[in-house]
Amino acid sequence: MLLTILALPAAIMALAIERSFVQILNPAYLWQFIQRIGVHYLLLCAFLLLLIIALSTTVGLLGAFTPDYLITFLVSIITMYFVLVMFHMMGYVIYQYHEDLQFEVADVHAENEVAAAHAPRPSVPRPNTEVLLNEGKIEQARKELEAYVHQAPGDLEVRARLHRLLRATRDTQALCGHANDYLRRLLDDRQASRAVEVYIDCLKQDSSYRPDDVATRLALARLFRTGTNSKLVLHLLNGLHRAFPQHKLVPEAYLLVAQVMCERFGEYQKAKKILDYVLSHYPDSPHNDEVRRYLSIVEKVH
Questions:
Q1: Which residues 6+ apart lie within 8 Å of 53 measured at CB?
Q2: Distance between CA 156 and CA 160 in Å, rounded?
Q3: CB neighbours (10 Å) of residue 184?
Q4: Is 126 in contact with 147 (CB distance < 8 Å)?
Q5: Half-sphere exposure (CA, 13 Å, Cβ side) for 91?
Q6: What is the DSSP string of 191-210?
Q7: pLDDT block averages, 10 residues each, the chain of length 302
Q8: Whose CA is closest to 120, among 189, 179, 167?
Q9: Contacts of 88 (CB under 8 A, 6+ apart)
Q10: What is the structure's pLDDT at 109?
Q11: pLDDT in the model for residue 102
């Protein structure tokens, strides 16, 4: 009973992140969720308990001095206030530990500021392709955009225009080729939501597409861990040990794969095999302590 009560705030926060009732019923996921927050989770529970006690005391005092025809209305208002305070407190914990929880916090203003700070100053003016496109000169517009991008690859506004043009013309090879570098730059500039959109665009035209470097795959996989597209984590990261056998990010990537296998799909045996593989083939990885901790959780749950 006590464990159920202690796990309730974690379940509420996990529901806000995952938007899935099935996911929060997974004890391995909730235990890992609590571990990522650490001792401050107990502090959160203590403050929530104090708020519940304060609510109960307030309602009791209110009942002693308030007419019967007002009591229901006032209790409802006060209860909603305390519940909102609790939800804001849990929301702040999610924000404070969003990196540990691998939850992407959208910050449009920050993304725009970073993009502006890194905006290039090319030696040639930006191409004005609207007239060409209106005249149906699509190929010429594409050539001008590609020539400009070659000289100013960091101009993400023009990169976006080229991406839209390649997507519209359904030149799949060019679209995915352009995306390899474009995705890296979007992620470097913290434009996570835009990077997700670009990757989905590529998948719609080539269901097998994956970026050509491990770091970009891993960064995208972290974005897809929560929500309804968690299968894309497996699509992005499966087979890394064959394509990049000595890459230092493989253990970290496979830990993420194992977590998704357990927490999203309940594939505990497969996850255990992945974790055992990491420990046996990458014995010097700095992530092995975390791999062992998660492996112990998997073994206890299943």
A1: none
A2: 6
A3: 18
A4: no
A5: 8
A6: -HHHHHHHHHHHHHH-TT--
A7: 77 78 72 82 88 89 78 88 90 76 54 48 67 79 88 89 91 93 92 91 94 93 81 92 90 92 87 92 90 87 70
A8: 189
A9: none
A10: 44
A11: 59
Helix ranges (H only) for the chain are 2-18, 21-24, 27-37, 39-65, 68-96, 108-117, 130-134, 138-151, 156-169, 172-188, 192-205, 214-224, 231-237, 240-243, 250-265, 268-281, 288-301
CA 227 – CA 210 distance, rounded (Å): 20
Tokens of 42: 């107990």
Q: Is the distance from CB of 33 to CB of 93 less than 8 angstroms?
A: no
Closest by alpha carbon to 278, among 267, 289, 266? 289
Say how far apart CA 156 and CA 114 lie, in whole Å: 11
Q: Please say whether the beta carbons of 250 and 240 come within 8 A.
A: yes
CA-to-CA distance for 55 and 80, rounded, in angstroms? 10
Return the pLDDT at 203: 94
d(CA 20, CA 25): 9
Distance CA 253, CA 218 (A): 6
Distance, in Å, from the CA atom of 284 to the CA atom of 250, rounded to the nearest integer, reads 12
The one-letter amino acid at 18:
E
| CA proximity to 56, closest of 38, 78, 84 | 78
Q: What span, in angstroms and rounded, lies between the C-alpha atoms of 159 and 179?
A: 9
C-alpha torsion sign, points 190, 192, 195, 197: negative
pLDDT for the residue 138: 86
- CA pair distance 138, 174, nearest whole angstrom: 14
Here the tokens at position 277 are 């593989």
Residue pointed to by tokens 């019967």: 68
